[in-house]
């Protein structure tokens, strides 16, 4: 899928170059990033949506609102970057453009491991200024747009690029934001919930239990539950939230059947999956496209 940065002519200006993701509209590399190209045709509101990672979004068509921060896409022309801090829980509205009947955007979530490496490499940004703790939008000037374009061209290729190259592109984007005053909080890499999430995301279709995840993390089931409780979480609710995140991404970026999506998210029963999705997002998965 090609996403063009539209201009008045097809000629040479940098802002008219293509953002060229691959044909795959969802790419996930646990421990690095998640990249998606959501495309929906009806107005949607996801209440209390939890952003696990630092997230960057660009609206191409339609309107996006994260709590009280709104961004509008103009016929595929990216004008601004919506930046969301790790751990933000917000109401997210996506509304198709009236003239084109679709909402389209670019979604990039950057893993906490990359943020930790960024602050290790650029320690001056770790203690300078106030880190972003909520949501903010920032204009896409020419240089930042070029950096963003370079980044997503590599990320959209997924496994065809090395981890080192992908990490380098993400670092460049974070540096571009930091030099413009958008610095994120340094993650706590020791949080048990983060470690659990990464294990689950490594094979989200597996039938994970607290015992099997604990074995992967070299701790007993009791220790795992105790550590999560100390962070105010339960294993069952965290597992469900991770699966629902993945489900929403698949619903909005693929044409897979609901049965196939439910299986990809670790559910044996499509009916149980649909009920859980409706309970979490207020609508059946088939109506969220």
UniProtKB/TrEMBL annotation:
InterPro entries for the chain: Homeodomain-like_sf (IPR009057), HTH_AraC (IPR018060), HTH_AraC-typ_CS (IPR018062)
Chain residue ranges for the region called Disordered: 1-21
Stretches with biased composition (Basic and acidic residues): 1-18
Ranges where the HTH araC/xylS-type domain occurs: 194-289
One Pfam match: HTH_18
Signal peptide span: none
Top-level taxon: Bacteria
GO CC annotations, alphabetized: cytosol
Alphabetized UniProt keyword annotations: DNA-binding, Transcription, Transcription regulation
GO molecular function: DNA-binding transcription factor activity; transcription cis-regulatory region binding
Annotated PANTHER family: HTH-TYPE TRANSCRIPTIONAL REGULATOR GADX
Stated name of the protein: Transcriptional regulator, AraC family
Species this chain originates from: Paraburkholderia aspalathi
Classification lineage: Bacteria, Pseudomonadati, Pseudomonadota, Betaproteobacteria, Burkholderiales
């Amino acid at each position: 899928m090609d996403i063009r940065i539209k201009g008045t002519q097809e000629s040479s200006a940098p802002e008219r170059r293509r953002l060229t993701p691959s044909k795959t509209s969802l790419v996930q590399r646990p421990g690095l990033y998640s990249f998606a190209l959501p495309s929906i045709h009806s107005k949607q509101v996801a209440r209390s949506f939890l952003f696990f990672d630092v997230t960057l979004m660009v609206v191409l068509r339609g309107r996006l609102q994260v709590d009280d921060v709104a961004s509008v896409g103009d016929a595929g022309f990216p004008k601004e970057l919506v930046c969301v801090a790790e751990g933000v829980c917000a109401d997210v509205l996506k509304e198709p453009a009236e003239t084109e009947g679709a909402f389209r955007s670019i979604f990039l979530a950057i893993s906490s491991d990359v943020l930790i490496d960024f602050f290790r490499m650029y320690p001056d940004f770790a203690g300078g200024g106030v880190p972003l703790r909520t949501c903010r939008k920032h204009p896409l000037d020419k240089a930042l747009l070029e950096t963003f374009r370079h980044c997503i061209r590599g990320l959209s290729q997924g496994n065809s690029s090395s981890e080192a190259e992908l990490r380098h592109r993400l670092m460049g984007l974070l540096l571009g934001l930091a030099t413009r005053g958008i610095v994120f909080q340094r993650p706590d890499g020791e949080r048990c919930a983060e470690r659990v999430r990464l294990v689950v995301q490594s094979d989200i279709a597996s039938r994970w239990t607290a015992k099997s995840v604990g074995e992967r993390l070299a701790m007993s089931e009791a220790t795992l539950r105790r550590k999560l409780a100390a962070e105010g979480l339960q294993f069952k609710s965290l597992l469900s939230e991770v699966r629902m995140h993945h489900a929403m991404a698949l619903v909005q970026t693929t044409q897979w059947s609901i049965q196939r999506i439910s299986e990809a998210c670790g559910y044996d029963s499509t009916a149980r999956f649909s009920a859980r999705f409706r309970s979490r997002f207020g609508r059946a998965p088939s109506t969220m496209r």
